[in-house]
Write a structure and sequence with these properties.
single chain, alpha+beta, 6-stranded antiparallel barrel, two-stranded antiparallel sheet, about 25% helix
């Protein structure tokens, strides 16, 4: 199932007070930092992760509206930090993450990989194929709600040093099939396939040849255009 969200630049920024991570890139990179406000979202299941009261946590692909109206999808990091829904938030480089003792610093390449390879950058069908290729089984594929839940739990695994509770992963009424599907996706995103992705380089655009000449009124070319960025 497709998402209504566009994707922000993966690996490019932390938004606000260590609360949200941008999803991966389908909008042009800009020299100016992104800014905007939290605006809606699509819920996954609630999850139990680790101890210390980390139970019945809401998962969501969080909506974030830029000042130009572009709608982005975000995931949460730093579980104990509340999301500010009242004030504008501004993109900051990942190496300026404000909590010096957070596992985020050691694991940000792993988190970046999750953002590039989780939902919604990868469709539910693509993720289901990856999960089953690894030997896991799913019940009637992977739903959007399951995909959001597994992706958020994987982000928290690396950003907050938590583990999904396998005995009762979904405390809010998710059935056994949904719980098994979420665990299977979580295992894929946090497992050996996750080799990490470093900070994303600035997208490049090249046109070849760089110049051609011809007569006025006649077609000139061909030209080859290549880019390391995403094309929407």
């Amino acid at each position: 199932m497709s998402s209504r969200f566009k994707f922000a630049r993966a690996g490019a920024g932390v938004i606000g007070a260590a609360a949200l991570l941008m999803m991966a890139a389908a909008i042009p990179a800009s020299a100016d930092p992104a800014s905007g406000v939290v605006d809606g979202g699509t819920d996954g299941y609630h999850v139990n992760v680790g101890g210390g009261g980390l139970h019945n946590l809401k998962t969501s692909l969080i909506g974030f509206k830029l000042n130009d109206g572009t709608q982005l999808g975000m995931y949460c990091v730093e579980i104990h930090t509340s999301i500010d829904r009242e004030h504008e938030m501004v993109e900051q480089p990942w190496d300026e993450y404000p909590n010096p003792g957070s596992p985020f610093h050691d694991n940000r390449d792993k988190i970046n990989w999750v953002l590039h390879n989780g939902f919604p950058v990868k469709s539910t069908d693509d993720l289901a194929a990856k999960v089953t290729e690894g030997g896991a089984s799913l019940t009637d594929g992977l739903s959007e709600k399951e995909a959001i839940t597994g992706t958020q739990a994987a982000v928290w695994h690396f950003s907050d040093d938590t583990d999904l509770n396998r005995d009762e992963p979904l405390p809010d009424g998710g059935d056994e099939a949904a719980a098994a599907d979420v665990i299977a996706l979580y295992d894929y995103l946090t497992g050996d396939a996750n080799g990490g992705i470093g900070d994303q380089p600035t997208p490049a655009l090249e046109v070849s040849p760089t110049e051609l000449s011809g007569k006025a009124g006649e077609r000139i070319g061909p030209f080859t255009v290549s880019t390391t960025g995403s094309i929407d």
